[in-house]
Write a structure and sequence with these properties.
By secondary structure, the chain is α/β, with parallel strands linked by helices. The protein has two domains: 118 residues, Rossmann fold; 209 residues, Rossmann fold, CATH 3.40.50. It contains 15 helices and eight strands. A four-stranded parallel sheet has the order 2-1-3-4. The longest helix has 26 residues. The termini are far apart. The relative contact order is 0.12. It comes from Clostridium frigoris. This is 2-hydroxyacyl-CoA dehydratase. Its cofactor is [4Fe-4S] cluster. Belongs to the FldB/FldC dehydratase alpha/beta subunit family. Pfam families: HGD-D.
Length: 333
């Protein structure tokens, strides 16, 4: 199967039905031991330092890994993607644009996905067969999520890893199934670990994945990863078809739509506080104003840039925030 790069989660059901192997360029970038090289490639080619690291990393990962075709989300994700795909086209990469309509009407979402299917010459029947197959795997990922916030057996990082990997199923759906079944078996045989604080992580997946281990050492656990969970489509089996599935997907639409699901999860998962991660130079940082105003829970906003580990200042802020949450919890008792 031919590889096709993704700048973010898109209707992969269409691509797989068309005979492609989707490859999430974000995952290639962030898991690379040489991730800084991808950033350097972009900056040598003229990308400014004052630009989101993820965009530069995607660019470098695309060029260095022999990706000849990509799907670029030009509406509903990063505001810099339009510029990114123009540069990639200059480098000879074939680009297929896709949009999540900002007005968030079902008929508009359906229209965009039908256009996408026409571009790749597949039918709704073919796409639905693939969707049902992928949703079996997504059910396994959902089980890991439940082992995190209900059973207290899966770690926050495991929760993050397997959900974020659902954007492209690690490029091999059958192998990913086997990996998921093995890790679920292992997790189920663990003893529960209950820490004093239950945290939610919201915002784009972090550059600094050591945040999960860091908070655990401070008697806290992440039991909710917002965007990663959306990448895994936890409500997919309850939707009628692919149009409704991507209409129900909160990440690309307005903040108020996100807030409805956030409020539900804060209550269901009994969260004590939220860490809101934003990336330097990203417009989504402004969303923090709306989120903080509408969510009745303590929220700490932290920002990442090029480092893939937490810096000293962020660690201090996290420690102070968790201390405050512990004091609040003790005061309520």
């Amino acid at each position: 199967m031919k590889k096709i790069g993704l700048t973010t989660t898109v209707p992969v059901e269409v691509l797989i039905a068309a005979g492609y192997t989707p490859v999430d360029l974000n995952n290639i970038f962030i898991t690379s031991n040489d991730y800084l090289n991808y950033i350097d490639i972009a900056e040598r080619d003229g990308f400014p330092r004052s630009l989101c690291t993820w965009i530069k990393g995607i660019y470098g990962a695309c060029l260095q890994n022999g990706i000849k075709e990509i799907v670029g989300v030009v509406e509903g994700d990063c505001s810099n993607t339009k510029a990114l795909i123009e540069v990639l086209e200059l480098r000879g990469i074939k680009v297929y644009p896709f949009s999540f309509p900002c007005d968030h009407k079902l008929e508009d979402v359906e229209h965009e996905i039908k256009k996408f299917m026409d571009v790749f010459n597949v039918t709704i029947k073919e796409v639905e067969i693939i969707r049902k197959r992928l949703n079996k795997t997504r059910s396994l990922v959902k089980e890991i999520d439940e082992l995190t916030y209900i059973d207290n057996k899966a770690t926050g990082f495991e929760n993050h890893l397997y959900q974020v990997s659902s954007s492209d199923f690690n490029c091999n759906i059958d192998d990913f199934d086997v990996e998921l079944k093995n890790i679920i078996y292992e997790i189920k045989n663990r003893k529960p670990i209950v820490r004093k604080l239950r945290l939610g992580y919201i915002g784009v997946p972090p550059m600094t994945t050591d945040i999960y281990d860091f908070v655990e050492n401070l008697n806290a656990s992440f039991v909710y990863n917002e965007v990663q969970r959306e990448f895994a489509f936890p409500r997919a089996n309850d939707t009628l078809d692919i149009y409704n599935q991507y209409y129900d997907y909160t990440y690309p639409y307005d903040t108020n739509f996100r807030i409805l699901e956030l409020q539900k999860q804060i209550c269901e998962r009994k969260l004590d506080g939220i860490i809101h991660y934003t990336q330097a130079f990203c417009y989504r940082a402004v969303n923090h104003i709306v989120l903080k105003e509408n969510l009745n829970i303590p929220i700490l906003n932290i920002e990442g840039d090029k480092l893939n580990v937490l810096d000293a200042r962020t660690k201090l802020r996290l420690e102070a925030f968790l201390d405050m949450l512990l004091d609040l919890k003790e005061a309520k008792k």
